[in-house]
Each structure stands twice: as structure tokens, then as C-alpha cells.
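In this supplementary section we document a worked example of the pipeline. Step one takes a protein sequence of length 123 as its only input; no multiple sequence alignment statistics are reported here. Step two produces a three-dimensional model, which step three serialises into C-alpha cells for compact storage. The input and output of this example are shown verbatim.
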Amino acid sequence: MAETLLAGLYAVKRDEDDNLLIFLPQPDGIKDNPVILYDGGEHALFSRNREQNIVLDYVNPEMRRELSTAAECMVAEVRGQNVADHYRAVVRHVDNIPVDWQKFGLTTWAEKSGNNNVGEEKH
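The serialised model returned by step three reads:
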């Protein structure tokens, strides 16, 4: 049975060469054919290998369009202050990610922040 973890503190940004980057804490285990599933919504699912999924919770509203149009991105796994590994991951666009987000205690960006003005919040 696959393990599903929350990413914890992570960041999505563009670098100076306009590449989409995702920084996240390095999980245990190996990467194998990493794929990010994204439906344009609040959360994404990073399938790091066949047995390990990582929830990218509360995708910043400012980065949703970036992730929605990306074919791939660079993933940088961070351990302490250092990048421990980096690699490309395919972004697979789907209509709906088949996950019950509430099972992981996840709601919506506005509910989490207590602010309905979602454009001003940062993740």
C-alpha cells in the first residue's frame, strides 16, 4: 500500500531562466519516475515513486496558473540548509485528483488563512 505524506513547508517559484521549481524537505526513500498530478485546485499530489505520494497542500493562488500550464518542473529536495537532490518531474494535468483532502485535514486556502481575499496570501 502506498504511503501518503504531507510535504510540510515547501515552495513553488520560477527561477531567472523561467523554469518552474518546487523546493521541499527530502523524504526518506528513493525517487523513481516522479510525477506531479495537478487539477488546478488547492492541492497537488506528487508521486515520488510507486509507493510514496506527497501532498503539496495549499498551492499558492499566485502559482496555480504556473503549475497548471507547466509540462514539467524541477524538484529540489532539501535536507537542512542544503539541496540534497534535484531532478525533473513531469506535471500531469488531470480533471480531478482522486483524493479525499479532508482525510489529511485539508480545507481551502481561504478557510486555512481565515481570509477570503486569497490573492494577498502567500504560501
